[in-house]
Amino acid sequence: MGKSAIALATFAALLGAALAGAGVVVYGGVYDVSASSQHLQAVHSLLETTMQHSVRWRARNIATPPLDDAQRLVRGAALFRDHCVQCHGAPGVAQADIGKSMQPVPGPLVDALQRWRPREIYWITRHGIKMSGMPAWQFRLDEEALWDVAAFVQLLPTLSPQAYAQATAQTAAAPGRAPGVAPNRSGDAERGRLALAQYACQACHTIPGITSSSPNVGPPLQGLASRSLIAGKLANTPDNLVGWIRQPKNVKPLTAMPDMGVSEGDARDMAAYLATLR
Ligand code: HEC
Ligand code: HEC
Fold this sequence. Notes:
This protein is mostly helical. It has two domains: 59-170, Cytochrome Bc1 Complex, Chain D, domain 2 (Orthogonal Bundle), CATH 1.10.760.10; 189-274, Immunoglobulin-like (Sandwich), CATH 2.60.40. Helices cover 49% and strands 1% of the residues. It has a two-stranded antiparallel sheet with strand order 1-2. Helix 3 crosses helix 9, helix 7 packs across helix 8 (143-155) and helix 11 packs across helix 13. The relative contact order is 0.10. The protein binds heme C (2 copies).
């Protein structure tokens, strides 16, 4: 055997071993997916470092508005109390049970400024962090509200437990959720594709262009544009589709499709995307 033949054979043997190893991990059930088992410290650090660089790179060109406005901080306090404290806790406040046992565990954010610039905290809040429990708020909070809560996170390290309690007691309900984009413009199909995923439609429907585990709880939406009726009842027009997406029970009182709380603008964008599914 020549030298290059030996090198080739060695390479093939190593590749075979690597594939066999990967096969055992994927199909053999040896990897522990439980959230009650910890990542190795090295794995945790690797994931954390990857995440930090990803966020920094993606947030690098975002312009930060003034964040020290008193009204902004009042709104931010209410938003933090209503949407963040359950998982992250706050000065003098523990996370709720849902936040305590997640893997990775959501930290208290009082030290977030040591790791993140304000625009990065805004980015994380807007987009969430994949494969962790950090949700994306883009379709739940409007732009101003996202900056409001990011501004309040800046304030956390300076708040005593008493000051936090006071800041969040003063404010009434948090500002309303994102109204979406102006309702009577025409739909934006690409934004609609994002919205479908952010409203969890793919939890029940298999939808071309959206990653899912191919559920069958609702009918597949492939070919929806070619159907003459929506849910077997309603003429398939853009307005009717928006109406169905927003309030399916108005069309069929006993339907298993829940009201997903979709804003008019978001429903219009979803309808525009669904109209491309021929
Ligand atoms: C359902 C639980 C949950 C909710 C609700 C939640 N988060 Fe998170 N958050 C997480 C998890 C999990 C992480 C990832 C922790 C990690 O990777 O170390 C995270 C990470 C973060 C980070 C990066 C933290 C760091 O220390 O590096 C920020 C900033 C953040 N969240 C802000 C918010 C804000 C602001 C809100 C409210 C609008 C919020 N989160 C609501 C679970 C949550
Ligand atoms: C909990 C499961 C569930 C979720 C989540 C869900 N749906 Fe449905 N959906 C259904 C079921 C079940 C039906 C069939 C309803 C019927 O005919 O009564 C349906 C029907 C539909 C139809 C009509 C399909 C056809 O073939 O006529 C459309 C369009 C639709 N859903 C869109 C959506 C959108 C958009 C979302 C996200 C905002 C969504 N669904 C979220 C369960 C769900």
